[in-house]
Specification:
The protein has 178 residues and is mainly alpha-helical. The chain has one domain: Ferritin, core subunit, four-helix bundle (Ferritin), CATH 1.20.1260.10. Helix content is 73%, strand content 0%. It contains six helices and no strands. The longest helix is centred in the first third of the chain and has 31 residues. It binds fe (ii) ion. The site of fe (ii) ion (FE2) has 2 residues, from loops. Keywords: DNA-binding. This is Starvation-inducible DNA-binding protein. InterPro entries: DPS_DNA-bd (IPR002177), DPS_DNA-bd_CS (IPR023188), Ferritin-like (IPR012347), Ferritin-like_SF (IPR009078), Ferritin_DPS_dom (IPR008331).
């Protein structure tokens, strides 16, 4: 019983635990682990940015209300759908996908801002979303290089699509501040 408890605890703090150790899809085990770990960081960044974009959809105000309310909705909807593809790629690589706020806080490069309880002005929201989209790009680009070296084409394809989207969103948001 003591061992079972210890195993349970290890599983909670190690979201990257290999769920299928005997998997052989032609990617070296070590590469598969590194890519799955990297994708967990991409998922955490993407989820954090998704939530922030939805938060700002709810709380934006001022003369830009209508256009930003709609723009944020378009972006968070696309991001929400992509979360599933990232998580399921981690599963296909034989690992568990993180799915708790606790894990996302640990894994994300986008840090929680406790002051966000009070909504910032619209231009601060836009600037924060530029930063967030750029952060996802940096993480995705790092993992894409790993996947490319390992011959993991589905992950390369997925991350290429995510980079196209997040670089485009960063540009569209940046343009509002010029
Ligand atoms: Fe809405």
């Amino acid at each position: 019983m003591g061992k079972h408890k210890a195993d349970k605890k290890a599983a909670t703090i190690a979201p990257h635990a290999d769920a299928s150790p005997r998997i052989d899809i032609g990617i070296a085990a070590d590469d598969r682990r590194k890519i799955a770990e990297g994708l967990s960081h991409v998922l955490a960044d993407a989820f954090t940015l998704y939530l922030k974009t939805h938060n700002f959809h709810w709380n934006v105000s001022g003369p830009m209300f209508n256009s930003l309310h709609l723009m944020f909705e378009t972006q968070y909807t696309e991001q929400w759908n992509a979360l599933d593809d990232i998580a399921e790629r981690i599963r296909a690589l034989g690992y568990h996908a993180p799915g708790t706020y606790h894990a996302f806080l640990q894994l994300s490069s986008i840090k929680e801002d406790p002051d966000l309880i009070a909504p910032p002005a619209w231009h601060d929201m836009v600037a924060q979303l530029v930063d967030g989209n750029e952060a996802v790009c940096r993480t995705a680009r790092r993992v894409l290089k790993l996947a490319d070296k390992a011959g993991d084409d589905p992950t390369v394809d997925l991350l290429t699509q995510r980079l196209q989207t997040h670089e485009k969103y960063a540009w569209m948001l940046r343009a509002l501040l010029e």
